[in-house]
Write a structure and sequence with these properties.
- The complex is a heterodimer.
- Chain A is an alpha/beta fold.
- Helix content of chain A is 36%, strand content 24%.
- In chain A, the strands form 2 sheets. Chain A has a 6-stranded mixed β-sheet with strand order 6-7-8-3-9-10, with helices on both faces. Chain A has a 4-stranded antiparallel β-sheet with strand order 2-1-4-5, with helices on one face.
- The N terminus of chain A is likely disordered.
- By secondary structure, chain B is mainly α.
- Chain B has one domain.
- Helices cover 78% and strands 0% of the residues of chain B.
- The longest helix of chain B has 33 residues.
- The mean pLDDT of chain B is 92.
- The chains are: A alpha/beta, B mainly alpha.
- Chains A and B meet through strand 6 and helix 4 of A and helix 1 and helix 4 of B.
Chain lengths: 267, 245
């Protein structure tokens, strides 16, 4: 709960009462992404069956579920590249994919989408220039993903993990308000994974909203909030601790299994 | 559309091309080698060589750019960079015009080198200036780019994309006046050739071949080709989808 004493924005600004009023009314102030009754079909196959959720601003939300559960589809709907059958997706109050959002949303696909026939530096500098940033910001983004020293290497000669990081750097360089990351840590060694999560945390603390998908349950504990989906439906949407308590389990894997079997009995 | 994105994207495509040395070598040398082949085929028949070589100066850039553009665009699609691009501030027209400009620049180099060698080494003779020949060749290359971008929307794989080459290029090549003069064709064939852009660029080239200075017909033909380019790019933009199933 945000109070006047803890809210830095209120302390910094004199119009505290308006801000408080907005917070107390629970208006979209702290909501970055709103998904309502989202239905998506791919081919003739239903992928998302009327999903609704809220994603808060400035926190890390984990999107977890088995492969094929609809994680990527939900992310594509949020960045506006998915054809949607029904429902509503809003980002900062604008319909997903609106022109005004394209400066503010960074999307990293699961398979790295960078140009193999360019060097790491050329890739990142190209994406930087789309947001009117220059070589300095590009170099910083490359360093942030631990690829400094590889600037002049062709992307096609990088390892899978390095390529994934090059792809991430291309999103970081735009300094987006929302980062949508589809399985960003797949294929990375534990040291790098730790390093990236530390960075995600730093970004969130600086006010960036992160939506990170994963099917590795131990990563769930690093998130502020979790959305568990299975077969296109949300089965849990809460803080990691609360989910574990609700499922009466001490680790995420067990909690997830308990929730699935509970859902199976209901269904 | 925005200028800085267009410039950045054009630069990016040219940089990709620059890293691909083999493609550059093929782009620049192939037309010259093929013209040399024609030169020996028409040994001693200067008039026939002049006519065919002149037309080929326009046809090569058209076919080559048609092919490489449709493959390049397909690679954007299959590598996921196209989808990613559309979540950034890049607009459809930024992307299409960037391809048009970048490959247009490549085609200018290609056409200049080919024309230079054709006039110098192979003794090509035209009544009009070589500069106009290069201009028309570049317009043809850009036509190839625009049609290639459009074709790539209808192909899901590179395998399909190359099949579009004969579909789009061969009828235009057959009916453009290279094999049979267009007025000598059956009426319905001439009618078809009248709606094909390559017919106009070949006519423009033949005007340069026959007249010492640029003619009204040549300019009209060039404008028709450029109108088709704009129309194909607009159609290309209309077939590009930000949202995909």
């Amino acid at each position: 709960m945000i109070t006047a004493a803890s809210c830095a924005r209120c302390l910094a600004r004199p119009n505290l009462i308006i801000h408080l009023a907005l917070n107390f009314e629970g208006i979209a102030m702290d909501t970055a992404i709103e998904v309502d009754d989202l239905v998506v079909e791919r081919g003739k196959h239903p992928v998302l069956h009327g999903i609704s959720t809220r994603i808060q601003r400035g926190v890390i939300t984990g999107l977890l579920g088995p492969s094929g559960s609809g994680k990527t589809t939900l992310m594509r709907a949020i960045v506006g590249s998915q054809v949607v059958k029904a429902g509503d997706v809003r980002v900062f109050g604008y319909p997903a994919g609106s022109a005004s959002l394209r400066h503010r949303v960074g999307y990293v696909t699961q398979s790295p989408s960078v140009y193999g026939d360019l060097t790491v530096g050329e890739n990142v500098r190209y994406f930087a220039s789309l947001y009117k940033y220059g070589a300095t910001e590009a170099a910083a983004a490359i360093a942030n993903v631990g690829l400094d020293g590889h600037e002049d290497q062709m992307v096609s000669t990088l390892s899978g993990g390095q390529r994934a990081r090059a792809s991430l750097a291309c999103a970081l360089v735009g300094q987006p308000d929302i980062l949508v990351l589809d399985e960003p840590t797949v294929g990375l060694d534990p040291v790098l994974r730790e390093e990236l999560w530390r960075q995600f945390r730093a970004l969130a603390e600086a006010g960036t909203t992160l939506l990170v998908s994963s099917h590795v349950m131990d990563e769930a504990n690093r998130c502020d909030r979790l959305i568990l989906i299975r077969e296109g439906s949300v089965i849990a949407d809460d803080a990691p601790g609360a989910i574990k308590t609700a499922a009466d389990a001490d680790d995420m894997d067990k909690a997830f299994l308990t929730l699935i079997s509970a859902q199976g009995e209901k269904g | 559309m925005s200028a800085h994105i267009l410039v950045a994207t054009t630069g990016r495509i040219l940089r990709q091309l620059r890293h691909d040395r083999r493609t550059i070598a093929l782009l620049i040398l192939m037309p010259t080698l093929l013209l040399t082949l024609l030169y020996f085929m028409y040994d001693g028949q200067e008039q026939a060589f002049n006519r065919i070589a002149l037309i080929m100066l326009g046809v090569f850039p058209f076919i080559m750019m048609l092919l490489i553009t449709s493959i390049a665009m397909l690679r954007e699609r299959t590598s996921g960079t196209l989808e990613r691009m559309f979540t950034t501030p890049v607009g459809k027209l930024d992307l299409l015009f960037a391809y048009g400009i970048a490959f247009g620049v490549a085609a200018t180099v290609q056409a200049a080198v080919t024309a230079l060698l054709a006039y110098w080494l192979l003794g090509l003779e035209t009544a009009g200036s070589a500069g106009l020949v290069v201009l028309i060749a570049v317009a043809n290359a850009v036509l190839g780019v625009a049609l290639g971008l459009l074709c790539s929307a209808f192909a899901r794989t590179e395998f399909q994309a190359v099949q579009f080459m004969p579909v789009v290029a061969a009828p235009q090549l057959f009916l453009c006046g290279l094999f049979v003069a267009r007025p000598d064709m059956a009426g319905w064939l001439e009618g078809i050739s009248n709606v094909m852009p390559l017919s106009y660029s070949v006519e423009a080239l033949m005007e340069v071949g026959a007249h010492p200075s640029a003619t009204g017909t040549m300019w009209r033909d060039l404008i028709i080709v450029l109108c088709v380019v704009v129309a194909a790019l607009a159609l290309g933009a209309a077939t590009l989808r930000r949202r995909t199933p």
